[in-house]
Amino acid sequence: MGFYGKPAERTPIISVRLADDTPVATRTRLEVLRTDTPSFTALVEARRNRRDEWYQASAGYIDLCNVPVPVRAPHD
User: Fold this and answer.
1) Cα torsion at 49, 2, 14, 65 (round to 10°)?
2) Are 40 and 33 in contact (CB under 8 A)?
3) Residue range 5-27: average pLDDT?
4) What angle do CA 50, 33, 62 make, to 5 degrees?
């Protein structure tokens, strides 16, 4: 669950850089599903009203962290 029993097991974040702050040639190329599309709306609705066997009843709502935004490497 993201917790470590011993401090020695922790991995510190040394630095962070935004892709916009790196040269274009060194950026990882990714395609991200736009959130203003019917496809994204359908994805959110599917997650909101899941029908998997694990769920006894559909919740009818969704938490922000439960909406994975699809990302893929471009097919060149």
Assistant:
1) 10
2) yes
3) 89
4) 30
b/e burial code for range 4-41 (CB count within 10 A of at least 16 → b)? eeeeeeeeeeeeeeeeeeeeeeeeeeeeeeeeeeeeee
Q: Which residues contact 21 (CB under 8 A, 6 or more apart)?
A: none
Answer yes or no: are the C-beta atoms of 71 and 31 closer than 8 Å: yes
pTM: 0.58
Q: How many CA atoms lie within 13 A of 55 on its CB side?
A: 10
CB of 35 within 8 A of CB of 69? yes
Are residues 28 and 19 in contact, defined by beta-carbon separation less than 8 angstroms? yes
Mean pLDDT of the chain: 85
- Residue 16: predicted pLDDT: 92
